[in-house]
Design a protein that fits this description.
three-stranded antiparallel β-sheet
Length: 113
């Protein structure tokens, strides 16, 4: 066993040019894949940060009932149908983002309506 180790240490043979080129090619491919993975992860992370910021902005608007730039309130009408009395239409203000992920609604009652 010790003899094999001494022979290996004293050996004058080395790697061939083809072996060196193949190992360089493999290393280059591995580095390229690693770089691509890092860039893809950075793009995904940025997209998630933007989506998260939009999520919390819409949530804040829906919770506070305040119109903000890019997230305007809009007046809509809701028809309420009762089985025993006349139908009623309410004017409602909707707060939240355009996609409707978060929205809150308010209405003002006028008189005895």
């Amino acid at each position: 066993m010790m003899r094999k180790i001494k022979d290996k240490i004293n050996s004058q043979s080395g790697e061939t040019l083809v072996e060196v080129l193949v190992s360089l090619l493999i290393s280059t491919i591995a580095i390229g894949l690693l770089f691509t993975s890092i860039m893809t992860a950075a793009h995904i992370n940025q997209a998630n940060k933007e989506a998260d910021a939009k999520f919390y902005k819409e949530l804040q608007i829906a919770e506070t009932l305040i119109s903000q730039e890019g997230y305007e309130s809009e007046e809509i009408q809701i028809n309420i149908i009762f089985q025993t009395v006349d139908d009623k239409t309410l004017d409602v203000i909707r707060y939240g983002g355009e996609d409707g992920a978060f929205a809150s609604y308010t209405h003002t009652t006028e008189g005895d309506e």
